[in-house]
Amino acid sequence: MKEAVKVEGLWFRYDELSDWVLKDVSLKIFQGEFVAILGRNGCGKTTLVKHFNGLLKPCRGEVSVFGVNTRNLSTAELTRRVGYVFQYPDSQIFAETVFEEVCFGPKNLGFPKEGMRGLVNSTLKKVRLKLDLEASPFSLSTGEKERLAIADVLAMNPRVLILDEPTTGQDYSTCRRIMEVARDYADNGNTVVLISHDIDLVCEWVDRVILMKDGRILVEGVPDKVFMEDKALREAGIEAPSVLGLAKAAGIDGKIIRMEDLVEELIRRIAV
Amino acid sequence: MVVLKAENLYVQYFKTGFFLRNVSLSVRKGELLLVTGPSGSGKTTLLYSLSGIIPHCIQVKRYNGNVYMDGVNVREVKFSELSSKFGIVLQNPTSQIFGMTVEEDIVFGLENLCFPRDEIEARLNYVLRFMGLEKYRTRDPLTLSGGEKQKLVIGSVLAMDPEIMFLDEPTSNLDPEGAKDVLSTLIRLKNLGKTLIIVERRIERISPYVDRIIALKQGRIVMDAGPREFFFNRSMVEELGVNPPPTVKCVYGLIDRKIPVKNVPLTLQEFRLLVDKLLNGVKP
Q1: Beta bridge partners of A3
Q2: Does pLDDT of B283 surpass 80?
Q3: pLDDT tens-digit series, residues B144-154
Q4: In this predicted structure, what is the pLDDT of residue B46?
Q5: Three-state SS for B86?
Q6: Across the strands, what pairs with B168?
């Protein structure tokens, strides 16, 4: 598998008088992977991912994207490779129409004008939005705005997509749609990095989980492994998946973190 | 005893489209009522209407029907007469915090109503203890975590000792630790005998603890039922797009696999009993 993002011995603080926000972080994220970064507010999740698109540069250590050190790339060059959807869509949306909003990024990257309408339509389809292209983005619902913010970034076709808490404050059906969009994008050979507090969604959709605490990586691995580490979860302030609690209540010792698997196991036991 | 009542309420902000259509409901004293529904369904508008903020503080194009708080028609009294009966916690806690310290924020309302000094002190201590904020007494509120800020706002409202408390999305924007903390605070407020009307779009955590769920869709009440009855109506739950508690989701999964389950468990204990019955071949 090809490395999309590689972080080696990364240390970062916002200025010389303040504490280190990231302390010796090393990790690799691969092409085609859908990865979630979890941890308490303030543990350094957002600071870490801001290094992936060059919004921040390391104080010590290295970050490279597809083999190129971010120090040697301008933010503009990095933007083509790494797309970042910020936590609050309202802080990102600004154009007068949906059409202008979605094609702002591609236009600035010099994408051909002729293809623009087609690009906007196909991008909105990707995020499962049906909108009047002339409507004002500010007239949309919270869930629609979040997906529009994702469309803005997807329109530039970045090879790495970063989603910073896209499901916070959203209703459940929007959450599921966002996860579908992210999964599809990764399955098409891109990389998706998700910051989230939604443990149950994370269990169901992502390939790998990175657990952070106080600027360090505590554990990482497939959800089935990480969510079994009670001690690390407690330390990082992360709740165990709710399915694990249900399985225990039902007297099942096995490592079950997804609802489908729990139902399957219960059916098997009822049949016996 | 009914403390809040809406009769055939219609609210319209603009020339076109109603935000509330023919809403009728009543809330009993001490009830914990959850209002849910998709975004734009009228949840916040209902909260503002039940508290009299509409039409007193927010102008609307049309307002038909009646809302009674403690038997008084909210339109027929001054807003100041209503505001002593209820407290409201808005969606974004920071918009409601303005004290330089936690204690200043809590006593603001009491000082403005010229409460005696010792009464203010007593209430301040009570609220700090109830909310678990004693150690933050002299802290700048803006340095608190999201959950702590939310608890401070609830505490400042509690200091006024209102009969009815309205809360707009008190947990949905918090991280899981904060959400859990605020949820347990809400349950303790119910145990104090407060009437609570809570709007939330994410209901999987809170719904097992509420007395009743009212679901809105396009300004109409489409469901008004206890949590068990609410989640047993699966087609409605799915139409509303809300996330049921995990125990309920598991039962939906079992029903899909042709296991006949006739009630939905809301707690882990109930879930355990259900599974025991199924494994022992007893029809639940």
Answers
A1: A30
A2: no
A3: 888 899 999 99
A4: 96
A5: strand
A6: B199
Structure confidence at residue A76 (pLDDT): 83
pLDDT value of residue B219: 94
Cis preceding linkage at B55, omega within 30: yes
For residue A231, count CB atoms less than 10 angstroms from its CB and return exposed for 0-12, middle for 13-18, buried for 19 or more.
Answer: exposed
What type of residue sits at position B25?
Answer: L
Asked if A249's CB is within 8 angstroms of B271's CB, the reply is yes
DSSP A19: P
**DSSP string for residues in A222-262:** -HHHHTT-HHHHHHHT-PPPHHHHHHHHTT--S---SHHHH
The residues of B whose Cβ lies within 8 A of any Cβ of A are 38-40, 145-146, 169, 172-173, 175-177, 180, 201-202, 204, 241-243, 246-247, 249-250, 253-254, 256-257, 259, 268-269, 271-272, 275, 278-279
- Considering only alpha carbons, which residue of chain B is nearest residue A143? B39
The structure's pTM equals 0.87
Phi-psi region of B145 (alpha: psi -120 to 50; beta: other; left: phi over 0): beta
Helices (H), strands (E): how many in chain B? 11, 10
What residues have CB less than 8 Å from B101, skipping those under 6 apart?
B137, B138, B139, B140, B141
Tokens of A123: 């991008």
B193: alpha, beta or left, given left = phi > 0 and alpha = psi -120 to 50? left
Q: Residues of A numbered 124-183 whose beta carbons fall under 8 angstroms of chain B's beta carbons: which are they? A: 141-143, 168-173, 175
Domain ranges within chain A, ordered by starting residue: 3-238, 241-272
Confidence of residue B284 (pLDDT cuts 50, 70, 90): low
Percent of the residues in chain B that have a pLDDT greater than 70, as a whole number: 99
CA distance B6 to A42: 43
Is residue A169 scored above 90 in pLDDT? no
Is A260 in contact with B253 (CB distance < 8 Å)? yes
Q: State whether ipTM is beyond 0.85.
A: no
Q: What residues have CB less than 8 Å from A228, skipping those under 6 apart?
A: A255
Q: Does domain A3-238 have CATH number 3.40.50.300?
A: yes
The closest alpha carbon to A149, from A194, A201, A87, belongs to A87
Q: Taking the C-alpha atoms of A259, A261, A265 and A266 in order, what is their torsion angle to the nearest 10 degrees?
A: 20
